[in-house]
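Hey, can you fold this one?
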Amino acid sequence: MDRVVFIPIVVRNVSVKISNKHILIHRPNELSIQWAQRIVQHYAADARVFDVNVRSVDIGTSTRLRVDVCHDAVEAVPSQWFVKTPSLAIKPRLITALPRFLHKEIKFYRSLSAHVPLKLPRILAAESLLCQGSTLVMSDLTENNFRPGLVSDALSVDQAGQVIRQLAKLHGHYWNKPNLLQTYRWLNGMSYQIENAMGTMMAYPLMRQGLRLAGGLVSTMLSQPALTYAANRRRYKHLLNSESRTLVHYDCHPGNLFWEGKEPGFLDWQLVRMGEGVGDVAYFLATALEPELRRKHEKTLLSQYVNQLAMAGVPELNEDRIFNRYQMHLTYPFEAMLVTLAIGDMMQKDANLELIKRATAAVEDHDSFARLIN
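Sure. Predicted structure:
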């Protein structure tokens, strides 16, 4: 059976893994004192848990629980926890269960996180068992005075520059390393293949439904190119993955960031894979910046990205070529946000519509579908 069980403590990029088991939960009412005790005692053997209180439940692509745990080992274990389980909403659960997105995120934290040159959350425990589910437990961001991002946040140019620099660090670190896929086959393994197959099969009806629900946010002139893209998605996704590859987040919108002062950290690694780094940049700029701000600064931010890659040791890149790839990759955030709307219950609707508005403006500004399709 496919089991992933661990508790890593990440300190200065060194991961110490301690075996753990029996922490799977499926519903908030399963968060008991006994459940929390099993986690706390891995950090302090004689510790006692006195109470567990669920402060909030947020249901989207996953179920996210914020939990207060009263215990007597506060120097070793935080008291505020953030718990992720598969979504309790039916449609998101159906979409995410087969490719096992949360299981993939657990694999990322277990296998790769200690070497990733980014700020990441502290993971307390995780378990994933085939056909039984997955549970990921991390320190609540507020425990360390981090500020969680919101999906609809509109970032400043300075904040965008900080994120671009961090993405360049990530991409430069893993640039053109084919051995990475040999070592971590799961990155583009079964989960990735199932996701691509499902995406291709459902692309056209979901795009059509998303366009209908988005209404006036997407111009009629954009509808037919979007549907053409959806009908030929497999070919276009292959084209968008045909140049230099690296480790990519693949879901880099404002809600998957957190902030320590001016420095961003990165959350939600369920879609991590090997792909084109500029795709992360396109996804981020299309969703995180108001259109006027993006139009004014995107070329400068792309130049910063290329310069940072060079500082990370990436061979000289053609900046015009990178910009051209950026323009084509803007089709993906547009697709992702419309599909999210079409499925429903995956993201707060007002935030979803705001990101559709931003991504639509980016695609229209760059005639992205025409660049990709032609």
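Residues 105 and 269 are 5 Å apart (CA to CA). Let me know if you want another pass with a different chain boundary.
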